[in-house]
Amino acid sequence: MLTPLLHLGDPRLAIALGAALFAWLLAARAWRMALCWGVLLCGGLGLVAASKILFLAWGGGVPSLGFKALSGHAAGASAVFPMLFWMLLHGCAAGWRRAGIALGLALGGLVGVLLVADGQHSLAEAVAGWVLGAAVGLASIRLGAASVPALPLHGLLWGVLALLAAAWLMKFAHLGYWMIRAARLLSGNARLYPLSID
């Protein structure tokens, strides 16, 4: 029952949606916001990957908090959905845009809660992932919103095309495999630390 909701935070979905929003911003010629969004999203997801590689390779983390690595699902959902709802409501009154952002943050929080309830992440990992994702989404909006006069609907078409292309490409991107390969290469260890909750 929880699985469909947990998929809202799947890093492959976050990357595909992030690419779609980036394409929509480019089509709208919102260069500054596109740059902010692209850099911050890549940086945030890169931090998630780095935390997982660090733990896999050397067992980093904070054992007293049950923290091994940032939750990519919580980070992805709390970054992408506030931005998505803000963009969809861009032409509406400020109150609607704020409500959209709040809904996106709540959706990211729900994904985090479900990850903890399902035993996939500790509370510390889910909260840290949510905070990182929220920072990415909110900072992108804060830094770039003033430079977006309008988001025309034809740009949404480019966003949908980018979403379909990115979703197709992500079927072949085995993110976990590449993080394991990177951890082995960087550490020289054949045996890695397990990321699962004990």
TrEMBL record:
<feature type="transmembrane region" description="Helical">
    <location>
        <begin position="35"/>
        <end position="58"/>
    </location>
</feature>
<feature type="transmembrane region" description="Helical">
    <location>
        <begin position="101"/>
        <end position="117"/>
    </location>
</feature>
<feature type="transmembrane region" description="Helical">
    <location>
        <begin position="70"/>
        <end position="89"/>
    </location>
</feature>
<keyword id="KW-1133">Transmembrane helix</keyword>
<feature type="transmembrane region" description="Helical">
    <location>
        <begin position="156"/>
        <end position="180"/>
    </location>
</feature>
<dbReference type="InterPro" id="IPR036938">
    <property type="entry name" value="PAP2/HPO_sf"/>
</dbReference>
<protein>
    <submittedName>
        <fullName>Membrane-associated phospholipid phosphatase</fullName>
    </submittedName>
</protein>
<feature type="transmembrane region" description="Helical">
    <location>
        <begin position="12"/>
        <end position="28"/>
    </location>
</feature>
<feature type="transmembrane region" description="Helical">
    <location>
        <begin position="123"/>
        <end position="144"/>
    </location>
</feature>
<keyword id="KW-0472">Membrane</keyword>
<keyword id="KW-0812">Transmembrane</keyword>
